[in-house]
Write a structure and sequence with these properties.
single chain; about 375 residues; Aspartate Aminotransferase, domain 1; Aspartate Aminotransferase, domain 2; 2 domains; seven-stranded mixed β-sheet; HistidinolP_aminotransfase; amino-acid biosynthesis; Histidinol-phosphate aminotransferase; transferase; pyridoxal phosphate binding
Length: about 375
Amino acid sequence: MKPKPHIVGLPVYKPGKPIEEVKKEYGLEEVIKLASNENPYGSSPSAKAAIQAELDNLSLYPDGSAAELTASLASRLGVSSDNIIFGCGSDEIIALIARAFFLPGDETIMADQTFSVYKSNADIEGAVSIEVPLVQGTHDLDGMLARITDKTKVIWICNPNNPTGTIVSGPALTAFLDAVPDRVMVVLDEAYCEYVTDPSYSDGVKLLDRYPNLVVLRTFSKIYGLAALRIGYGVARPEIIKLINQVREPFNTSRLAQAAAVAALGDQDYVEECRRLNSAGLVQLQGEFKRLGLEYFPAHGNFIMVDVRMSALDIFELLLRKGVIVRAGHRLYPTYIRVTIGSQEQNQVFIEALEAALKEQGVRA
């Protein structure tokens, strides 16, 4: 049984280590996971109540069109229902875009250190990924424009960028979109947009009327705290949404996810509180990194990427032994770890563990 030749050897996505595995492996009672950019405060109480209310309907298929959720989100965003598509996380929307638009040999442009799912899905469809180096952790938009050819189908911009946490400003983004040919799709991945407080940041959804080739991706996994339910969405012109829908599997989002997402959308006070707490946690970690003499990228999501001045994989292992899970192994940043902004208490535990690990390795502030 032979697979497609171009998928042989493709890397398998490696998620952050699960808490239970770390507890078992190292004999720990308490472990803090700051590796997957999950909301440390969980989901809205109203979302939990909606899940509970839906439990008697587990024997029923979900609404394949997610009509109630679509209407709620359309009202929230100020768009029409036919501008929206839902997926099993925004990851699935990425895969559906690749399935719908890439032919073998097509080219797609992305940063050289960004969300890995863009490249993996392009690889699966036989497209050629053009990776443009980041500049100080930020997308090089001029460099991306320079790489557009007649074969270019899709450009991916992760804003804020994962893993570096940097943003493309609104003026820079619109200047870029003005320069991109209409035939080239631009996918703006705003998975962390609700955390951004920088006034220069631009809401991608508000740009859709101006740019017919734009697709905006968002998720309920991050600030809404519904990562376990796997639900995200894309917003674009109806003609693009229709094409993506044509390759979508039926019932790709669950009843529980749809109900919880509707309730979560209705509790924007909870979202605002999570944003406030995240901003405070970010200030806390930045202050500690400065005290330790560690450089970091400007952070705008619910995570920060910091240079630990030694092998990030070694620090990752030392932190595991101390009961803290972070993210390491970024191919272009071998001395950087990415850490999720936790609660104040979690952040303090992380900083104490990091400082101890650095001292053990002879890294001084």
